[in-house]
Amino acid sequence: MHVEFGGTDISDKFELVKVKDPSQVEDGKVNIIGPDIKDLPESSSSPLGILIEVSGKQVEEDLEGVIERRIHHYCNYIEGFMHLNQRYDIWLRLSKKSFQKGFNSFNLLAKVLMRLYKSELPIIEKIQITFITDPEKVKGYKQEAMKTYENRDAKARGLKDEEVDSFYGCTLCQSFAPSHVCIITPQRYANCGAISWFDGRAASKVDPKGPIFNINIGEILDSLKGEFSGVNQVVKEKSLGEIERVYLYSAFEYPHTSCGCFEAIAFYIPEVDGMGIVHRDFKGPTINGLPFSTMADSTAGGRQVDGFHGISIEYMRSNKFLQADGGWKRIVWMPSAVKERVLNFVPPELVEKIPTEKDVHSIDELKDFLKSKNHPIINRWVKPVVEKVPELVAPKIVAETTPAPTPIPYAVGGGVKIVLKGAKISAKRVILKVTREGAH
Hints:
By secondary structure, the protein is an alpha+beta fold. It has three domains: 3-156, Bifunctional carbon monoxide dehydrogenase/acetyl-coa synthase(codh/acs), Chain M, domain 3, CATH 3.30.1650; 161-380, Bifunctional carbon monoxide dehydrogenase/acetyl-coa synthase(codh/acs), Chain M, domain 5, CATH 3.40.1470.10; 383-440, no CATH class. The chain is 22% helix and 19% strand. It has helices at 64-75, 96-100, 106-120, 135-156, 197-206, 229-238, 292-299, 336-341, 363-372; strands spanning 3-6, 13-19, 30-33, 44-46, 48-55, 81-84, 91-94, 126-132, 166-170, 182-184, 212-216, 220-222, 227-228, 264-269, 274-279, 308-311, 331-333, 396-397, 432-433. The strands form six sheets. A four-stranded mixed β-sheet has the order 4-1-7-6. A four-stranded mixed β-sheet has the order 2-5-8-3, with helices on both faces. Strands 16-14-15-17 form a four-stranded mixed β-sheet, covered by helices on one side. The longest helix has 22 residues, at 135-156. The N and C termini lie far apart (63 Å). Residues 384-417 have low confidence and may be disordered.
């Protein structure tokens, strides 16, 4: 890495597309506010804002989010240049090799973006780009960008999945996760948080053969879990058979796949049979002892992993949020920063019952907190079922086993039935031998 922009250690970063009147856009113009790439110290990390202003007779404000998301796609066409995430979460890196070959100015990045935008979206007639690296300026521009994001998200709220006959799919991130297909519905934003159902509709009309496309819902196979025949068909086709079924409203069995650009992760906490939430900017370990980066490895890559579910922050404001798993009644921990952002969408009776990193610091403390607040999750806690089994003693396990990733309490002893819920156990070989008293 020669230089880095944004990322987890930089709080002020953003990318934003605004549709303007043609008179306000000077085609081909590039502004750089603050140090250019060549002026930054080697191995440094810098704040960054990218403002792209476009105009055209067919370019409408509804397309801003669609055009904006392609920044990620186009930046990764450049050798030695990395772009991750979106909106206020961007992370870019430039390699030493590419810098030494002459990639030393934002002017070159602007030239790439302008050429790709006009070739793939010819409705864009004029485009100008501003790069901001001055820390104070980035902070000021970001505040305005956050207002724009919120206005877009609010516009998409209200429409229900049951009221439409089409969903939309997005494969923009398949260069990172080949089997990942994002399913966008009115009540389930894209994992990245940048594409709403309205954005999907606009994009599929403007670029029918592009990475965002229409999905016929087909038959409703399970309304609670969110399984649709049309979605399954498209996901199987676009993932080349890797993924065959998807539940849109659950983190278990066949959860929605994730690429790596998700805003947050919903993760299972077996000790309390609940779900935690952690977002990308959370520092340090979560309540289960794992940091965001470790859980992201289990979540990303287009895989379906029980209990690890990449989501957008906007999805947490939806009535379909983990609907099949219990919704908000299943959430037992989340960072205070996320809780504050979605506070108005958390059921009032649960607000004080969901702890943050300020309230608890271990699983034991979490259990005590949930009990003291009478969180609904405690109704799911079931004691092991004990049955008297005549003439039998505890089974002997003869073999080396690989324990589950997360410790799961269990009971052993004569006449005890072992019940493991939410467990994942792998073993090369397990031999169960039942012996009678006095026998081997």
